[in-house]
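Researcher: I'm preparing a figure for a lab meeting and need a structural model of a single chain. I don't have an experimental structure, so a prediction will have to do for now. The sequence is pasted below. Please return the structure as C-alpha cells so I can convert it later.
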Amino acid sequence: MRADEPFLVRHADVIFALKTFAASMLALVIAFAMDLPRPYWAMATVYITSQPLAGATSSKAFFRVMGTLVGATMTVALVPNLIDAPELLCLAIALWVGLCLYLSLLDGTPRSYVFMLAGYTVALIGFPSVSEPGAIFDTAIARVEEISLGIICASLVSTIVFPRSVAPAVANRVDAWLSDAQRLSQAVLLRQGTSDMRRGRRLKLATDIVEIDTLSTHLAYDRLTDRNAVTGLGEIRLRMLMLLPVIASLEDRLAALGEEALRRQPELKRLLEDLAQWIASDVGARQPAEPIRAMIAERQAVLDDSASWERIITTSLLLRLRELADLSRDCRVLSEAIAESRNVSTLNLAFRSEAGAAPVRHRDRGLALWSAAGAATAILICCAFWIGTGWPDGASAPMMAAVACSFFAAQDEPARFIRSFGLWSLVAIVVVAIYLFALVPAISHIEVLIVALAPTFLLYGFLIGRPATAGTGMALAANTATLLALQSTYSADFASYANSAVAFFVGVVIAELVTRIARGVGAEWVAHRLVLSSWKTLAVAAERRGKHDRAEFAGLMLHRLGLLVQRIAFLSESDRRDADSLVQLRIGINIIDLRRARYGLAATTIAVIDDMLDQLAIACRSHAGGGMPSELLTSVDRALAKAVTDSNDSAREDALIGLVGIRRGLFPDAPAYRPRTGESVAA
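Model: Understood. Here is the structure written out cell by cell.
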C-alpha cells in the first residue's frame, strides 16, 4: 500500500481483526448472560458473517438470518415426524440439502447464501438432535437466537466502529475500469499497440466487470451509502456493459476497412483522431458531445442498392462511433453527478436500457445438479456409516459433509478446496485440544478467557481480512469456535472430544471423495460448457428474432465471458479467438439490433432476414468448433442484397448495420460483400 493512503486503509486488515474479535467476544458474553445453550454458535457466527466492508457484512447477515430461519423451520418439520424411520430421515435431510445447494448454485449472487444456509442448517441442527427429538423445537429456537445474536453484534460493530462503506470500493473500481476502457478506446481509434495488447486489455475489462457486479450487489445493504450514488453506479454499470462490445466492434470495422481505405478518407481519419482526443480529455477540459456527434453525422451517407462494401462498413463504423461518444459522455456525466451527490434521475442521458439495472447471470443447471447429487450422496454415505456402526458421536460426519459440499460447490475443482478445508480443520482440532485440556481448565473468569482467546482469534481475523488468506482464516475461525464449544460450565472429556473430532474429519474426507467422483471434470469441462452455452444463447436470440434488451444480453454474455477468461488456458484455439474478440457478444447484439429494423421493413425483406436467422440458429446449435457453413454466408449476403433495396431509409440502415455485424463476426476472413446491382433477390 502507498504511504500516502489513510491510516485506516493501510492497516485495514489489522483493524478488521480487532473489530471482529471484539464483536465475537461481545456475542459470547451476551450469550453467557442470556444462558443460551450453545453460546459458541454466536461467537462462530461473527467470524462467518463478518466482511471487511460494512455493506458486505450487512448483506451476508441478512441472508444468514433468513437461511437460518428457513433451515430451523424445516428441521422442526422433519425430525419429529421421521425420527422413528432414521433411514427416511437421513434421506429427507440429504435431499433437502441437495435441493437447497442446487438453488444456491443457480442463483449465483450473494443471495444464494440463503439457500445454502437453509440446506446445511437442517444438517447442523437435525443430526445432533436425533438422540433428543422431543427438544428439537427448543434447539431450533436456540440456534436462531444464537445466530441472530452473532449477526447483530457483527453488524453493529462493522457499522459503528471505523466502518468501511462498499460504495467507495465500487466507485474506485468503476473509475479504474472506465480509465482502462478510455485507454483501450484511444488505442483502437488511433490503431496503436499490437492486437495482443488490445486483446489483453479487453479480457481484463471483461473479468473486472464481473467482479464489480459481484461487489455492487452489497450496495443495497450498505447504510453508509447515499442512494443517489447507488442509482448512479447502477446506471454507469449499464453503459459499461455496452462499452466493451462497442469498442470491440470498432476495432473489427477498422480492421475490415484497412489503412488503405482510411488514407482514401482523410476526413474519417481526422474524425477518429478528434474523437480519441475528446475521450482522453480531462473532466474540466472536455467539450460537449454535440460537436462530435455533428461531425459523425456529416460523414454519414445514404445507403442504397449500389453501396459498396467499403461504404457499408464505413457507415457501420460511424454508427458505432456515435454510440461510443454517447456512452462515454453518459459515463462522464454520471461520474460527475455521483461526485457531487446529485440526483441522477434528472440527467439527460443518451443511452436507456429496456430491462433496468438488474444483473443477468449465467446459470449451469447441469453442473448445479451434479453438485447437489454429490452433496446428497456424501451425506447418505456418512449416515449409513454412522447408523451401521452405532457410533455415538457419528452425527458430526454427515453434518460436516453437508457443510463441506455446500461451501465449495461453486468452485471448478471443489474437491481440492474441500481437501484444504480438511487440512486446516486438522489444525483447528489440534488448537482446540490445547485450549480444552491445557488452558481452559485453569480459567475461571470471563476476562481471562478473552485474553487467552485473543492471540488465536486475532490471527484468524487478520487472515480473513486479507483476500489471499480469507478462506484459510474462515476455516480456522469457524472450526475452532465450533469445536471449542465454550459453555457456562467446563465439561470437556478427551474421549468424547476425540470421537467428535474423528467424526468431524471423516465427514470432510467422505465429502472430498464423493465430490471427486461427482465433480471430477475440472476447469476444461466447465470452459467447454460455457462456450456451448454462449452459442445456444445466440441460437435462442436468432429464433426469437432478437427479442431481448441489449444491456441484458450484454450482461449475460459478459458474465459468461468473465467466467471463461478465468479458464482461457483450457480453450481450443478457435474458441479462445472467439472469446478474445468478443465475437459471440457482438453477434448477439447485432441480432438484437435487427429487431429495430424488422418491423419497419417490407414483408419480402423480413422474410429473407428471417430465413437467415433460422439458418443462423441451426448453425449455432450445432456448432462444435471450427468455422460456420458457407451456406450461412450466402444467406447473410442474400439478406444484405435484399435489405439495401428496401424503401424505408432508417429501417434499411439499421438492418444493414446488424447484418454487417453478423457477417463480420461469423466470417471475418470472407471476401468482401459485392452489391448485386441489377440482380433479382428472391424472397
